[in-house]
Write a structure and sequence with these properties.
Length: about 400
């Protein structure tokens, strides 16, 4: 039996963290290519370091690159302009990393023909999975977003500080990390035992001055009474954080996969999301798993739900489905019933069915690169479609 009283911790990182800068750039490239060809194939990796951005990976798409690997006219310039605009939007205009001045190297090239032939639909063969792998989705009713509280509050802290910075407070700079430790009683979050925040700041500020700036904003996004006199605070515990972002540490796409998902509260299949078009099941099937798990919890069928799906490269049909309600099932619907029926609600969870059901062939990905891919509000243009709870009635009908 799982423990009901314990401490648990999750962390988040800001849009200006070097790895998140890399994720944002990679997803900006995905959006650019999908805006030209909704069926473009993209696997874009980004490296950021002191005044340098490097792109690498494999691509294909109408209006992007032909089958011989030649760029469409003007696209290379568009890529560079989009990358620089993304970095400017984050807020980097520093001597060590400046949106207008960093060196830009583009090493994207054509997709492997060996991969393409296995993944593309042909004749009676449906589109296959872009790779083998296991994907997980998770939901919990401990927050309104149906997310783990430790991660949701860690995200909320950094989103609030980003709003303050973008609103004109020049004392805060883009790079930041948060960490929240919560005491659980009877499986429910009751109080924060520790809050850690490290944020890049303008020159000359002490950690005490930074704490005075940020603490009211942190408290504003936590439930009332969630901190008390026993909560331990660590604000910029190293004492100074003036050099940050890619100038302070290199960033690489896909290095913050636990921040991107469930903060360690759920298993992770190991695949990153950013930089990948929706034929890559690392991304699309993980979104589908979250969508299904969230709907199970939203339907009141369980307090917690974890779903795993697995795939083989080039094969459309999932290899397996596993549902775990963690002993929290409500009513007659159990794991076996869900495993037998839930994939049918999204066309069998083939890569094509997932893309079509969730409307994933759109330029909706740059917005996912910071503050989590899950626990967000669905957008009118199709962004975060996997956060909808439109399967609730169908799931209840399985009883």
């Amino acid at each position: 039996m799982s423990r009901s009283t314990f401490l648990f911790t999750s962390e988040s990182v800001s849009e200006g963290h070097p790895d998140k800068v890399a994720d944002r750039i990679s997803d900006t490239v995905v959006d650019l290519f999908l805006s030209k060809d909704p069926y473009a194939r993209v696997a874009c990796e980004t490296l950021t370091t002191t005044n340098l951005v490097v792109l690498a990976g494999e691509i294909r798409g109408e209006g992007v690159m032909d089958t011989a690997g030649n760029w469409a006219p003007g696209v290379e310039a568009e890529i560079e302009a989009a990358v620089r605009a993304a970095v400017e939007d984050i807020g980097y205009a520093q001597s060590g990393f400046h949106w207008e001045k960093f060196e830009f190297i583009n090493r994207l090239h054509g997709q492997s023909a060996d991969i393409a032939v296995g993944v593309d639909a042909a004749g009676e063969k449906d589109e296959g999975a872009g790779d083998q792998g296991i994907m997980f989705g998770y939901a919990s009713n401990e927050t309104p977003e149906l997310m783990p509280a430790t991660l949701q509050y860690s995200h909320n802290i950094l989103k609030r500080l980003a709003e303050v910075r973008h609103g004109g407070d020049a004392r805060l700079e883009p790079d930041a990390k948060s960490q929240v430790t919560i005491q659980y009683e009877d499986g429910k979050p009751v109080r924060a035992t520790s809050i850690v925040l490290s944020t890049q700041h303008a020159p000359g500020l002490s950690s005490a001055e930074v704490a005075e700036i940020v603490k009211p904003h942190i408290l504003s996004v936590l439930p009332e009474g969630f901190t008390d006199e026993n909560t331990v605070w660590h604000i910029n515990p190293t004492g100074i954080f003036e050099i940050g972002g890619p100038d302070g540490d290199a960033g690489v796409t896909g290095r913050k996969i636990i921040v991107d998902t469930y903060g360690g509260a759920s298993p992770h299949g190991g695949g990153a999301f950013s930089g990948k078009d929706p034929t890559k099941v690392d991304r699309s099937a993980a979104y589908a798993c979250r969508y299904l798990a969230k709907n199970v919890v939203a339907a009141g069928l369980a307090d917690r739900c974890t779903i795993q799906i697995s795939y083989a490269i080039g094969v459309a049909k999932p290899q397996s489905i596993h549902v775990d309600l963690h002993g929290t099932a409500k009513g007659p619907i159990n794991e076996a019933v869900l495993e037998a029926n839930i994939l049918g609600l999204i066309g069998g969870a083939t890569p094509r069915a997932i893309r079509e059901h969730l409307g994933l062939n759109k330029p909706i990905y740059a917005r996912t690169a910071a503050y989590g891919h899950f626990g967000r509000e669905p957008d009118a243009d199709g962004g975060f479609s996997w956060e909808k709870t439109d399967l609730v009635d169908q799931l209840k009908a399985l009883a």
